[in-house]
Amino acid sequence: MFSKERENEKGKSKFSFAADSISTVANSMKIVGDIEADHDMRIDGHVVGNIYCKARVVLGESGQVEGDLHAINADIFGIITGNIQTDDMCCMKAKSTVNGNLTVGRLNIEPNANFNGKCTMSASDSSSPTMYVNENTMVLQNN
């Protein structure tokens, strides 16, 4: 995950991330404060703060977020109390709970997911969003 580049003038090591790395908040971790990431994230712990990710965020079954989530894509298995904004797809998996408003390009809500809030479809063009049910799953999508 980390690779040692070189030592700086004070003798401390510098680290770089691999291009395909994933940041993980482990089940036993609690982070208080905002998080920013340029690459994929997985959250199995507890985050109290906002999350800004320029890629995909996966909130695991044990994951909890108390704050807003901004990402390109989000897969929600856990609990989030806050608003979600995705440029593309937001998937709310079975047993997930979202207490907040959604602003998404596309939305997939599986059976047994709990959603308490309003949803706004961000339009990338002038066409209106459509809703369809696919094997007991509700999907909203811009055309």
Tell me the overall shape. Answer: globular
As laid out across the biggest beta sheet, the strand order is: 3-6-9-12-15-18-22-21
Radius of gyration: 17 Å
Give me the number of helical elements: 0
Report on the biggest sheet.
8 strands, mixed
The oligomeric state of the chains shown is: single chain
Mean pLDDT: 82
Beta content: over 45%
Distance between the termini: 39 Å
Low-confidence runs (pLDDT<50, min 5 residues)? 1-9, 12-17
What percent of residues adopt helix (DSSP H or I)?
under 10%
Counted beta strands: 22
Structural class: mainly beta
Describe this structure in words.
This protein is mainly beta and 143 residues long. The chain has one domain (22-142). The protein has no helices and 22 strands. A hairpin with a 2-residue loop joins strand 21 and strand 22.
Topology summary:
Blueprint: E1 2-7, E2 13-17, E3 23-25, E4 30-32, E5 35-37, E6 41-43, E7 46-48, E8 51-53, E9 56-59, E10 64-66, E11 69-71, E12 73-76, E13 79-81, E14 84-86, E15 89-92, E16 97-99, E17 102-104, E18 106-109, E19 114-116, E20 119-121, E21 129-134, E22 137-142
Parallel strand pairs: 3-6, 4-7, 5-8, 6-9, 7-10, 8-11, 9-12, 10-13, 11-14, 12-15, 13-16, 14-17, 15-18, 16-19, 17-20
Antiparallel strand pairs: 1-2, 18-22, 21-22
